[in-house]
Design brief:
The complex is a heterodimer of chains A (about 120) and B (about 110). By secondary structure, chain A is mainly beta. Chain A has no helices and 12 strands. Chain B has no helices and 11 strands. The chains are: A mainly beta (about 120), B mainly beta (about 110). At the A-B interface, strand 5, strand 6 and strand 11 of A face strand 4, strand 5, strand 6, strand 9 and strand 10 of B.
């Protein structure tokens, strides 16, 4: 079965510092997509960044970047210059195309605290 | 704001009852997904629709059903509710419902079963 593992239930970072959230996944598919979603206290699921597995170049969105290691099946999220508004649950997800569906499989999440 | 709307935001009901959750996808999106987020199970895929047709089922109970209407909005029906059905239910939408799409999530409906 497709699985996504986030080994850090909680992380904390000082404002303006950099933090890296870890994610590993297991898939039998050759073509797949990886995502990081942010869930602030409002509960809204907000897309942070997306990576196509066939691309070697790591995705970047402003202060957010990923370190995608395909062979190791690792997909970590780096947040630079952390801001108080970055405090949230962060979920790593992998696309799953089995059974004709294009669903997402999510990890359990990492709670990020940003300290002023 | 993702452009996906869900109503109601909160729903409190009793065991054995039936409720309907509603979702309107982003303009132009043809595919709708339903996910359940609970403390013990995390975020789990329930069901996907594409242009009115069911495309795939995930961990959806037989007491639950869904449909997508011609105007592309979707409803998730939960019946014979149990305490364990208390969760946050998300709807997401994407353009074509394929792996190259990004899924955009609605704000969720918080269901509490007493």
């Amino acid at each position: 079965a497709q699985t996504v593992t986030q080994s850090q239930p909680e992380m904390s970072v000082q404002e303006a510092e950099t933090v890296t959230l870890s994610c590993t996944y297991d898939t039998s598919e050759s073509d797949y997509y990886l995502f990081w979603y942010k869930q602030p206290p409002s509960r809204q699921m907000i897309l942070v960044i997306r990576q196509e597995a066939y691309k070697q170049q790591n995705a970047t969105e402003n202060r957010f970047s990923v370190n995608f290691q395909k062979a190791a099946k690792s997909f970590s999220l780096k947040i630079s210059d952390s801001q108080l508004g970055d405090a949230a649950m962060y979920f790593c997800a992998c696309s799953d195309s089995r059974g004709g569906s294009e669903k997402l499989v999510f990890g359990k999440g990492t709670k990020l605290t940003v300290n002023p | 704001d993702s452009g996906v709307t869900q109503t109601p935001k909160h729903l409190i009901t009793a065991t054995g009852q039936r409720v309907t959750l509603r979702c309107s996808p982003r303009s132009g999106d043809l595919s709708v997904y339903w996910y359940q987020q609970s403390l013990d199970q995390g975020l789990q895929f329930l069901i996907q629709y594409y242009n009115g047709e069911e495309r795939a089922k995930g961990n959806i109970l037989e007491r639950f059903s869904a449909q997508q209407f011609p105007d592309l909005h979707s409803e998730l029906n939960l019946s014979s509710l149990e305490l364990g059905d208390s969760a946050l239910y998300f709807c997401a939408s994407s353009v074509e419902g394929i792996s190259t799409d990004t899924q955009y999530f609605g704000p969720g409906t918080r269901l509490t079963v007493l």
